[in-house]
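Take a protein:
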Amino acid sequence: AGMSVLDHAQEHMELRSVIACVYQVNTELQFAARNNNIDGVRSAIEAGANLNTRDDDGFTALMWAAVHQSLDMVQLVIRHGANPNLLDEHGNLIEGLNPDHMACGESIVEILGANERLLAASRAGLWDQLDRELRLGAWVNVRDETRRIALMWAGRQGASAAVTSLVGKNGDLEARDAVGWYTIHF
């Protein structure tokens, strides 16, 4: 049968609780990024923060990393899926960036290139190239258009040494692709 008024009220309260938790972790991310606190940013990411959330000034965590010229924070947020541009909500380059800040943009390009090369090498079975791309800043759990990570491609191709290596580098065994398959399914 259907839900009672009490059931709907309970569901509504649960949703409000979830929304409050999401808001809190996003606020923690924004505060940490604004204050150049990489450990706080890392903690917020682990808690599920949305890396593309903008603060009251319209800045994302990546934008604050560029302002602070923190290449480590740039790498961290890009590797975890932050939108890689430094544009405000109107599509303009954020104000106040000087050439030193733009060096972060070069780092973003390098990391994104490493991510793309990591996935291409994984799809092609070029396992000797993975370590190099990871050293250049690629994220071990970066996803392709089918939501597969390098670990899934290694599993699909039966490359046990590559699977072992990627798991040792924190490859996500719980990751699912667009169809819902885990690495173990391959």
Notes: The chain has two domains: 1-97, 98-186.
